[in-house]
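Side project, low priority. Logging it here so it doesn't get lost.
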Amino acid sequence: MSNNAEYIDDVMTNAPALLSCNQTADLLNISRASVYRLMDAGDLDRVRINLSTVGRPTTRITNQSIRNLLQTWSTQSK
């Protein structure tokens, strides 16, 4: 199990604190729709932020929630 944890740390250390849905999908090798399903299910924490004064907020996923999801997935596969 520590090998999985070390691998997850290696992968996520260089990732930003907040990732876009596209970045998260690429990192997890899943579709954007799957990222939204994981957020809706509560498996990924989303943050809504305004990047400009006009327009609608954008969604970002926390690095820590991706780490937690990867850890959960790695322990379920055993």
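Brief comment: Helices lie at 2-13, 21-28, 32-40, 63-76.
Revisit when time allows.
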